[in-house]
Amino acid sequence: MTQTVIDFVPIWMLILGFGVFYYVLFDGFDLGVGILYGFAPGLEARNLVMNSIAPIWDGNETWLVLGGVGLFAAFPLAFAIIIPAVYFPILVMLLALVFRGVAFEFRYRDVAHMTFWDHAFCYGSAIATFAQGIVLGAFIQGFEVDGRQFSGGSLDCFTPFSIFTGVALLFGYGLLGAGWLVLKTQGALQDWARRHGRWCFIGVIVAIAVVSVWTPLMRAEIARRWFTWPNIAFLSPVPILTLLLAYWEWRSLNNRSEVAPFIGGMCLFLLAYIGIAISLWPMIVPYRFTLWEAASSPSTQAFLLVGTLFLLPIILMYTGWSYWVFRGKVRAELGYH
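Predicted structure:
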């Protein structure tokens, strides 16, 4: 009598995919606000910019932890290859996030060196974002693997493509940050956020266009995935929707809409995320190992799934509650100290 084994890989794929995307969106606008912070016009504006993310900035890293632990537990082979391959940019990212968090707290307590902590907050946000872009670019390019181990060098992740994706992510997070500031501020500061949002939007559109051409040229299998019949018909909604959303986002940044710039930026990220998933599916170590080949045993995945499904609703509830409690416009008299 054969025993039926439940396939937990699709479930873990959805959990990790959701966690990574949630982190990209919510810590993305958080880091984007930090990037734009360095361009804020004056002390009062910088205070408002920082106060706009004060109640929620430190909770967004929860999703980064979920992604790392979930990858280690559910897909250990992928973890063993990917982490050594991008160890250096991940280390830089974590150090930048720590330095950024320290700057956030010390800015209000070490007033004598406020300018230093202002720069630390801005540069920490930018460096962490650029490092994440390097990881993304290296992941899309693929890794040098010998058997079941990473066989490349620690600096192999730094290529023209990954450096480009690092710069592109600066514009992407900047667009999300500008959308958040449009939503949370008003008056002259909101107009300032719209102007910077338009510049970031141009950078995002250029990046999407370049990556959409560069990636198929880099990998023949990706070109076949997108440009052979009937795939080109089935997948055409992705670029079409991207163009429509880009038009909507540009209009929303130029009119008085307050919610649309943020929603439009998130939707552009969603479509880019879907595009990457389509290009790489079903690989978790690109071009070498699929999700099923890199997965841990079904018993391990089942055991971990119980705790994860218990914790996820709790994380979602307290995250949603924090955003609900601190909804509305940020005001100077409601500062973070």
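Summary: The first helix runs from residue 9 to 37.
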